[in-house]
Amino acid sequence: MTRKAAILGAGVIGAGWAARFALMGWDVAVFDPSPTAKATVEAALDRARASLPALYDSPLPPEGRVTHAADLAGAVRDAAWIQESVPERLDLKHTLFQEVQAHCSPGAILASSTSGFTPTELQAGAQRPGQIIVAHPFNPVYLLPLVELVGSGETPRDLLAKAEQVLDSLGMAPLTIEAEVPAHIADRLLEAVWREALWLVKDGVATTGQIDDAIRLGFGLRWAQMGLFETYRIAGGDGGMAHFLRQFGPALKWPWTRLMDVPELDEALVQKIAAQSDTQSGAHSIAELEAMRDDNLVSILRVLKDRNAGAGAVLRGHEAGLALPAPDPDTPAMPVTLDRQVPVTWVDYNGHMNEARFLQAFSNACDQLLHWAGMTPEAIAAGHSVFTVETHIRHLDEVQIGDRIRVKARVIEGGGKKFHIWQELWVGDRLCATGEQMLLHVDLATRRSAVPPDRIANWLARAKAAHADLPWPEGVGRAVGQRA
Ligand SMILES: NC(=O)C1=CN([C@@H]2O[C@H](COP(=O)(O)OP(=O)(O)OC[C@H]3O[C@@H](n4cnc5c(N)ncnc54)[C@H](O)[C@@H]3O)[C@@H](O)[C@H]2O)C=CC1
Ligand SMILES: C[N+](C)(C)CC(=O)CC(=O)[O-]
């Protein structure tokens, strides 16, 4: 499959898709007649570059090329994935699909971002109905993994399977929905909450700020990691879900909510909500709010990744496929042991990468080298590990948020009980830090030093021999306060 995506409509959602595809290495052709489309895509790319790579501890593929096509035919030609994100109007989408199918490959995936239309509605009047599916994303598309994937009876199963594969490769989480219903799953839930929130404001029960606090200070934190059913199972105590349903079930019929009743969005209500929203958030521009949202999402997602929970589990799975290739230990060059972007969470009050993060980078890079040498989770489970006994870090230049850092390693001593490693942290051609560490191989049963298993010993001894003729690094063996 060629890795070219066509993005039709480049507003909030189309620009987000363009950024997600491009940062995952796809070439992207955008078609949107609006004179502001280019700027919207550029802004989304900037936000994505500042956030998406920061989710990962491995390098993303080289960024794809983003071009703006003069016409729709030029955009969709040769594209393997065509993503429609024009306004939510069925007539507009029908006209667009007819033109797309006249020019695109019949094998291409033709996906709609629609929030509410079903595939059967979208396919009406199409030349090849089975080619059109729903791939409903969430804003910001370059950070949130969920995509609701829906086909109709006309949709070949292998097309959905292919779509799932592509979305997986983009680091996204396709949720394939068998039933065709208006608004799929997530927007039905969101609409119920949204309707209720509008009533609370209209009835003067709560302000927009109070409602947002009620979500973000409480159940919003639970939903990000456990969703609704798992959370309520716990709320049933040891009696679990059955007890929860018996206890709170009756409230559903009292009822606590306004159910399907929709408040009239007359000018007075629009003004009331808009004024409250201005008071709540008007001090910030939309761009500032987007940056805050993205920084917070990156931090939340990274914590979830560490805990392998919720969307963090998706990230982990995707990252496993992005790992650096293992080097040949006999190569007479320092291998790159870490290649990543500096995330916002690594920056301190001085506005640069905090000293503790240099140790983290060197520690992760050292673990990577040892992993290549054979110190795998299985080897560790069998009792073979290392303990660090000494570390010396020199900070030679500042590292900023978003910088791409590369660590290179040299094995000075290896193969026996001692493992002496020299590491250099580079940003482009700037050497920003060096780290020198002495580690001891240990037997985890006795927790005392021991020679490593042959496989690990041989790999490290070969790397040491391969590195031996490299120029001796300036700074090896330095101590704090040493006279020049
Ligand atoms: N905004 C949101 O939160 C979400 C929206 N969606 C869905 O994504 C779709 C797009 O929504 P938004 O990005 O919010 O809309 P938007 O209004 O921000 O962007 C729509 C873009 O389509 C362009 N456009 C209009 N006619 C076109 C045509 N014939 N060919 C190419 N481009 C054309 C417009 O110039 C505009 O840039 C809708 O179907 C919506 O339901 C899905 C998930 C979330
Ligand atoms: C408001 N909306 C229906 C367009 C929202 C979505 O479709 C998904 C989202 O990102 O919340």
UniProtKB/TrEMBL annotation:
Where in this chain does the record put each 3-hydroxyacyl-CoA dehydrogenase NAD binding domain? 4-177
Mind telling me which Pfam families this protein's record contains? 3HCDH, 3HCDH_N, 4HBT_2
Domain 3-hydroxyacyl-CoA dehydrogenase C-terminal, residue spans? 185-251
Q: In which pathway does it act?
A: Amine and polyamine metabolism; carnitine metabolism
Catalytic activities:
carnitine + NAD(+) = 3-dehydrocarnitine + NADH + H(+)
Task: Summarize where NAD(+) binds, as residue positions.
Answer: 9-14
Query: Which EC class heads this enzyme's classification?
Result: oxidoreductase
Per the UniProt entry, the Enzyme Commission number(s) are: 1.1.1.108
Q: Which UniProt keywords apply?
A: Cytoplasm, NAD, Oxidoreductase
Location in the cell reads:
Cytoplasm
Can you state the subunit structure given in the record? Homodimer.
Question: What family name appears in the similarity comment?
Answer: Belongs to the 3-hydroxyacyl-CoA dehydrogenase family. L-carnitine dehydrogenase subfamily.
Its biological purpose is as follows: Catalyzes the NAD(+)-dependent oxidation of L-carnitine to 3-dehydrocarnitine.
Do you know which NCBIfam families this protein is assigned to?
A: PRK07531.1
Q: What is this protein called?
A: L-carnitine dehydrogenase
Q: What is the lineage of its organism?
A: Bacteria, Pseudomonadati, Pseudomonadota, Alphaproteobacteria, Rhodobacterales
